[in-house]
Design goal:
about 60% helix; mainly alpha; 4 helices; 2 domains; single chain; about 10% strand; about 70 residues; elongated
Length: about 70
């Protein structure tokens, strides 16, 4: 429900929709208090649009094809 703002977090989190991105402990406490605002159905829709096995496999194939095309 919350993630620290580092690494790939900004690329995979939809702030206020699926999770909250925080940079310090105060923001983390506030995010935890806001967790009930998140809609489980909306979180599932975002997940299915981006992270199902089928979607991830398609993305990996596209990346692999792009890498091979660069050789």
């Amino acid at each position: 429900m919350l993630a620290w703002n580092c690494g790939s977090v900004p690329e995979i989190i939809d702030p206020g929709i699926t999770d909250f991105i925080v940079t310090n402990e105060e923001e983390a406490v506030q995010a935890i208090q806001r967790a009930p605002e998140l809609d489980g159905r909306q979180i599932r829709k975002v997940f299915e649009r981006s992270f199902t096995a089928h979607i991830m496999a398609e993305a990996h194939v596209k990346v692999s094809e792009g890498v091979r095309g660069m050789s």
